[in-house]
């Protein structure tokens, strides 16, 4: 049985229903479950809604057929464990939105839209496996398994393991593209950069409509020379939003950046296209490489 606070004194109660149960799902049913499964004296308050459903894990064979795109529950369903259904729909919309807008504006070839199905099916496959695992773990019936589960969760919560590994996966910010492993925070192609879209004068942020190129001067640099370098880049590179990381509050990316100068090219949905080493090449060569990469069809 799961008790989840919603707010304003409301709670959501979830429980597995005994196999082949034919009775009504009503107040008396939930009161009995509370008495049978929850220690102490528990009394159910006002019930606003109750129902029963079967959890399914299903996904369409493709999320795109010509000009028709499947998003959210139309494309996939999974166990409600981890509350991934709506979150997955948001991820679908973010992945498809910038691609569709770019194709409509003739900024990208229409073949880019094929990547929506490939990328999101990979994400949904990983997410549904986690959701199914959480559902199975929550339904343990034997005391040794329940004791081991509860002990492991308390230990993981108190030691920060949940925050570092499980929470990012549940939030779907730690699900990379392709065959990349989860649980690794690294600036490489196919992973999401740990930055937001909220505009700030102090910390770097992503563009919602264009690719973002973050210019990193390295750990040791001459400020005046780097500022001239970045100013030159803004005049030559026009197909993306350029962000100078010098003097910014870097947050989570601080420990991920290389010691030398580099540029990070990031898609509007936050996924990294490439990390370009600009330390030992001329500015013209670097700008040509960056222009070429953002003009090519994004991965």
TrEMBL record:
Domain FAD-binding: 26-122
Keywords: FAD, Flavoprotein
Names of required cofactors: FAD
GO MF annotation terms: FAD binding; oxidoreductase activity, acting on paired donors, with incorporation or reduction of molecular oxygen, NAD(P)H as one donor, and incorporation of one atom of oxygen
Lineage: superkingdom: Bacteria
Transmembrane segments: none
Protein name per its UniProtKB record: 2-octaprenyl-3-methyl-6-methoxy-1,4-benzoquinol hydroxylase
Species the sequence originates in: Xenorhabdus thuongxuanensis
């Amino acid at each position: 049985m799961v008790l989840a606070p919603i707010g304003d004194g409301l709670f959501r109660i979830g429980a597995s229903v005994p196999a082949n149960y034919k009775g009504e799902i009503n107040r008396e049913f939930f009161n009995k479950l509370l008495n049978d499964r929850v220690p102490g004296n528990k009394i159910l308050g006002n019930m606003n809604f109750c129902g029963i459903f079967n959890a399914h894990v299903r996904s369409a064979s493709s999320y795109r057929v010509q000009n028709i795109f499947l998003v959210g529950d139309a494309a996939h369903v999974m166990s409600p464990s981890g509350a991934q259904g709506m979150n997955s729909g948001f991820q679908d919309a973010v992945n498809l939105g910038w691609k569709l807008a770019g194709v409509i504006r003739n900024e990208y070839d229409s073949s880019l839209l094929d990547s929506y199905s490939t990328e999101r099916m990979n994400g949904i496959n990983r997410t549904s496996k986690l959701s199914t695992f959480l559902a199975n773990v929550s339904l343990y019936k034997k005391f040794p398994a329940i004791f081991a589960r509860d002990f492991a969760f308390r230990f993981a919560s108190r030691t920060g393991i949940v925050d570092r590994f499980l929470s990012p996966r549940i939030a779907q910010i730690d699900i990379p593209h392709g065959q990349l492993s989860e649980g690794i925070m690294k600036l490489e192609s196919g992973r999401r950069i740990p930055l937001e879209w909220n505009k700030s004068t102090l910390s770097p942020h992503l563009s919602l409509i264009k690719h973002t190129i973050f210019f990193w001067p390295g750990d040791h640099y001459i400020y005046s020379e780097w500022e001239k370098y970045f100013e030159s880049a803004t005049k030559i590179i026009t197909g993306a939003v350029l962000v100078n990381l010098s003097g910014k509050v870097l947050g989570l990316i601080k420990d991920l950046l290389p010691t030398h100068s580099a540029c990070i090219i990031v898609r509007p949905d936050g996924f990294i296209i490439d990390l370009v080493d600009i330390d030992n090449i001329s500015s013209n060569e670097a700008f040509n490489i960056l222009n070429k990469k953002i003009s090519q069809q994004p991965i």
